[in-house]
Amino acid sequence: MNRAPDNDVRRRGRLRRRLILLGVFFPVVLLTAAALGAVNIGVADLWRLLVGSTDVSEILRAIFWDIRLPRVLLAALVGSALALAGAGVQGLFRNPLADPALIGVSAGAALGAVLCFFLGWQGALGGWLLPLAAFAGGWLAVLALGVFNSGFAGGGTAKLILAGVALNAMIGSVLGFFLFSATDDALRSMTFWTLGSCASAQWPQVLVLFVFLVVGGFLLWRNARFLDALQLGEDQAAHLGVSVPRVRREIIIAAALLAGAATAFAGTIGFIGLVAPHMARLLLGSLHRFVLPASFLLGGMLLALADLGSRTLVAPAELAVGILTAAIGGPFFLWLLRRPSSWSA
Amino acid sequence: MKKNSPLLVAENVSLVRDTRSILDGVSLDVRGGKLLAVIGPNGAGKSSLLSVMSGLWKADTGRIMLEGRDIREYTAAERARRCAVMRQDNSRPSGMTVLEAVEIGRLAHGSGGDESGIVAREMLRRMDLEDIALRDCARLSGGEWQRVAFARTLAQVWKSENGGVLLLDEPVSSLDPAHQHHLLGSAREFAREGHAVLIILHDLNLTAHYADEVVLLAGGCVRASGAAGDIMRQELLSEVYGCRVVAVEDAARGTRALVSLPGPVRR
């Protein structure tokens, strides 16, 4: 009879070990991705680069520190941000098909970016106008949704989902208008942007995205236990002591910060925000103190690998990374779905 | 514990939704040490009363006092530490174990960890749920899930310094007879420890057996209230429910069972 508590201790130990294992894989995957490319870097050189040895050629150092590492880190942070945003939104809406795009942030960002291309301003402000416009567009869309839903509080969550669907459709039609009226060159740029790319990566972008990730991640983390309670339904969560309107507001703000910043730097990248949280749950159960960090790690690794593919598969040309996220993540996800869920008793 | 003192009080509560009167001047006390049953036909306003009494909805007139203070003045967490609610519409968290779902009951008590695990295990032991402690909530039967929800609700006000109030909305609707008795017996035991328990019930026989006091709601008004023996009478119940309610003597034990039978009410 007293087996259950022992088994529970064992189960939690197993979950913790899996999370630690993911945490170990994370830097390994990132370093591997940074070592591979047009010029491959061997393990010995990689070590010398990391410890700052002068035994490496100037060119290799420049490739690693100025090109590869910022790019791999940007890809990983974009993937992590999208996955975290997805985990928050799925937890809030209790809907397995929810992803950050549902709150309008991706469509709004696309509108901001497309407007930039339409006006030929994508190079303005040293290239920073494009991400700024995308981020602002994403936020405007979320704010519009919030105003419509009276501060996220009055309308309830079910209406918020439907309002998000309507908002997405409306922005989509405006987007369609710009695509339709654009010159061939602008159209090409717009299309590439909406397929996603980490090619613009430089250290400043990495740092900015990192700051957003810290803020958004913190907002989600402090609501992790409330997200657990929300899985019982909003009214029941309120009875358990959750201030539902406040939690809803903070989750949406966090998701908009994370997905907005990620989209601003890398364009619209689908699939990661939807699927990485599911992968996390299949491996680690449903408690958000496991789901959130695991989503962060899985999303980051997935996009770092997809970006590696986008740089190398058709080199010297580049594939859009959005093409590869689903191509790499899809089979892995199917494999996870087929496994019997080993954690349940 | 404050035995017999009113922990949760409804004072002349009215509720209107879309011009329809749902509750009209309802007053009742839920006292420490007592098990109070709220009964009444479908649509009488029982679940709405529970939503108002738990502080989830605001009453249009009147107020709810929890330990002498208006319930709307508490923060969500303060309220949750004193008053636990088991709703009918609990959705099941898939991928969460039974133990984890019960631990969520301790949410308002701080950072979780060891203490919530200890309380959750004690509740599972009380409700005979230890064997399924690690099962995925999505794989439970309706009755098992109802017992888990009850265990979580108990965990929420366990060892509450302030008496603690339980509000349960049809907690035995999916249970077999043995488990119905077990759950209601646990609820009564909990009341005897000084807590205040309000249960919405449909089963008249169970109400007659377990309730100390009964409030009979009909059409949003209190039709009758008082000691269970005074309210659970054939004539009154037959009239309010509009079907025959008869008492069957259990001579061997010297108790009575209330059963409903089809057919028109005999005057």
Q: How would you describe this structure to a colleague?
A:
- The complex is a heterodimer of chains A (345) and B (267).
- With 345 residues, chain A is mainly alpha-helical.
- In chain A, 76% of the residues lie in helices and 0% in strands.
- Chain A is built from 14 helices and no strands.
- Chain A has helices spanning 3-35, 43-51, 58-93, 105-119, 129-148, 157-181, 184-195, 203-221, 224-230, 234-239, 244-266, 272-284, 288-312, 321-338.
- The longest helix of chain A has 36 residues, at 58-93.
- In chain B, the strands form 3 sheets. In chain B, strands 6-7-8-3-9-10 form a 6-stranded mixed sheet, sandwiched between helices. Chain B has a 4-stranded antiparallel sheet with strand order 2-1-4-5, covered by helices on one side. A two-stranded antiparallel sheet of chain B has the order 11-12.
- Chain B has 9 helices and 12 strands.
- Chain B has helices at residues 46-53, 76-82, 98-103, 114-126, 142-156, 177-192, 204-210, 228-231, 234-241; strands at 6-17, 20-31, 35-39, 61-66, 69-70, 83-86, 165-169, 196-200, 213-218, 221-227, 244-250, 255-261.
- Chain B is of the alpha/beta class and 267 residues long.
- The mean pLDDT of chain B is 90.
- In chain B, helix 4 packs across helix 5 (142-156).
- Classes of the chains: A mainly alpha (345), B alpha/beta (267).
- Chain A binds chain B through residues 1-2, 4-5, 7-8, 11, 94, 225-226, 228-229, 231-233, 235-236, 238-243, 281, 285-287, 341, 344-345, and chain B through 51, 54, 56, 75-77, 79-81, 83-85, 87, 89-91, 93-97, 99-101, 104-105, 107-108, 112, 117, 121, 124, 130-136, 139, 156.
